[in-house]
Amino acid sequence: MSFGATLRGSYYLFSAPVDERVVRVDFTLRLPLARRLLLGRTADVTGTISVEELCDSRPLSGTLRLLLDENRVPFDLVTTTDAGRTLRLRGQGDFVVTDAVGSLTSVPASLYDATGEEIGRATLRFDWRGDLGRTLKSIRPVWRKQEDRSP
Predict the structure, then answer these.
(1) 113 is in which domain, residue-wise?
(2) Tens of pLDDT along 76-123?
């Protein structure tokens, strides 16, 4: 199964902590077959990311772990900046029963450079009132590719 969604929010760099900038992630999450999902608990993420003053609609890829028994969903996404440098966005959604909607729609994240040094922080949000219908409409089954059976 796959589906698409958009996360929007703001971020700041540690070098300029009072300058909030815009970040937007448009992604497709591809869940593997049920058995593989239960064993690996990992989904593939592809899409585009715009990070104000760093990159504009750049391709991204990465993984999202579905650690539902631990009430958390960590992710690790990679892109390149407009200057050609590696940029990672890592974060984790934590499910909190007393704030179910808030915990499912607001995700803290950190930005890392190519050396793995944390360079900034972000808060990403899913607009469930505006985007939920579009996200639900994007759900698609993913069929396993047929193996080549030619002799």
Answers:
(1) 2-137
(2) 999 999 999 999 999 998 877 676 566 667 889 999 999 999 999 999
Question: If we measure between CA atoms, which residue out of 64, 85, 82 comes closest to residue 73?
Answer: 64
Is residue 110 in a domain?
yes
Query: b vs e for 21-60, b when ≥16 Cβ sit within 10 Å of the residue's Cβ?
Result: bebbbbbebebbeeeeeeeebebebbbbbbbeebbeebeb
Query: Cα separation of 14 and 71, whole Å?
Result: 29
> Could you give the number of structural domains in the chain?
1
CA–CA distance, 30 with 43 (Å, rounded to integer): 6
How large is the C-alpha radius of gyration of the chain?
Answer: 17
Is the pTM above the cut of 0.85?
A: no
